[in-house]
Amino acid sequence: MRVNRIIVLIVATTFLFGCFKKKFLILNPQFSVNLALPTEDWPEESKLTPAQKAVFKQFGKPDFIRIWWDNEGRIKSYLNVDRAIDKKLYRKTKKSWVFRRIEKEIVFVNENNYSVVPLSDRLKVLCKYGDPESIKIDEDRETGNKIEIWQYYSAGKIFKFLDDRLIKEQTLPRLGTKIKT
Fold first, then answer.
1. What is d(CA 75, CA 168) in angstroms, rounded to the nearest whole number?
2. Please, which residues have CB within 8 angstroms of residue 129's CB and are 6 or more apart in sequence?
3. Quick check: 66 and 93 in contact, CB under 8 A?
4. In this structure, are strands 104-108 and 114-118 parallel, antiparallel, or unpaired?
5. What is the pLDDT along the chain (181 residues), one digit of tens a residue?
6. What's the CA angle centered on 37, arms 43 and 174, to 5 degrees?
7. Is residue 109 classed as helix, strand or coil in its secondary structure?
8. Domain range list for the chain
9. Rounded CA gap, 63 and 101, in Å?
10. Cα distances (angstroms) measured from residue 72 to each of 10, 75, 76, 94
């Protein structure tokens, strides 16, 4: 009889904790600290703003949730945000929803409004390859423009961007695996 009570108690406890399971994002720093994956049971609709509810109803679940570590939405490396990740501060930052299949990003202006923007070349690369393993800034000698260079050693790829536009892509031999820093 006592064994049955223990089993019932375990089952009831498991059920209760399962009902109160938090629905957060999956942040995998080996892929990206700028893009998170929504969990399987995301979202908890009661916690969505009216704008988010409208977007969810129209477009469904996003492929990624983009974390804006600053107001401009610049791509940050793990080393730049590691303490914020440890403290789970990404839960309080601005976020936008990324839909790869329709090549749109939904940027939430406030609780009731949002804007739909096309995916930039930079965000398309980020969605496919994750955070770059190296980011460098070069100046074009002729124009003086700042060119941002993303290197993916493990994929053998180099991407050059002018603003958010891809201006050059190179394929090189892969150089093994590297931890994104």
1. 19
2. 152, 155, 157
3. no
4. antiparallel
5. 443 443 333 433 333 344 444 557 888 889 999 999 999 888 888 889 999 999 999 999 999 999 998 888 888 888 888 777 766 666 678 899 999 999 999 999 999 999 999 999 999 999 999 999 999 999 988 888 999 999 999 999 999 999 889 999 999 998 876 656 5
6. 170
7. coil
8. 22-171
9. 8
10. 49, 9, 11, 10
> Rounded to the nearest 5°, which phi and psi values hold at 154?
-70, -25
Structure tokens at 50: 């009216």
Asked whether the beta carbons of 82 and 69 are under 8 A apart, the reply is no
- Nearest Cα to Cα of residue 125 among 140, 145, 103, 147: 103
- Percentage helix, strand, coil for the chain under 3-state DSSP, each rounded to 5: 30, 30, 40
